[in-house]
Amino acid sequence: MRSHEGDVVLAGSRQGVGFAGALVEEVRACLWSLQIARRYGFARLVVEGDILSRYQKMLNKRINDNYVGYLIQDVLDSLGYFQFVSFFLSKGKGIN
Predict the structure, then answer these.
(1) Using an 8 Å Cβ cutoff, are 45 and 86 in contact?
(2) Best label site of 3, 20, 51, 89, fewest CB within 10 Å?
(3) Is residue 13 part of a domain?
(4) DSSP code, position 18
(5) Pairwise CA distance, residues 48 & 90, whole Å
(6) How many Å apart are CA 81 and CA 71, to the nearest integer?
(7) Cα 27 from Cα 74, distance rounded (Å)
(8) CB 83 within 8 A of CB 45
(9) DSSP single-letter state for residue 1
(10) Which residue(s) pair with 44 in the sheet?
């Protein structure tokens, strides 16, 4: 995690069991990052990633009845703990 000035304020990694595909792993990473941000008291976040479909599903709140859908719902539920969250695509296009 970086500050608004770009300084690293927190770094970490997590080893999961197996690999479930790019979309699932991206959503898992997002959820874990939100949980850590909350634990350390961050209130305003910009979440960066590169899988457009995940962001579109979260923003449109179209949740599938499957594992990815449950993870996305957990991410959406986590957003309520923060004052501000913006999603930013790594390819240079921001989504609020």
Answers:
(1) yes
(2) 3
(3) no
(4) S
(5) 6
(6) 16
(7) 10
(8) no
(9) -
(10) 84
Q: Is residue 4 part of a domain?
A: no
- How many CB atoms within 10 Å of residue 75? 21
| Residue span of the structural domain in which 77 resides | 22-95
pTM: 0.76
Evaluate whether residue 16 is within a structural domain: no
Token pair in block for residue 34:
């939100």
Structural domain count, the chain: 1
Write a three-state SS string for 53-94.
Answer: HHHHHHHHCCCCCCHHHHHHHHHHHHHCCCCEEEEEECCCCE
Question: Directed axis angle between helix 22-39 and helix 67-79, to 10°?
Answer: 30
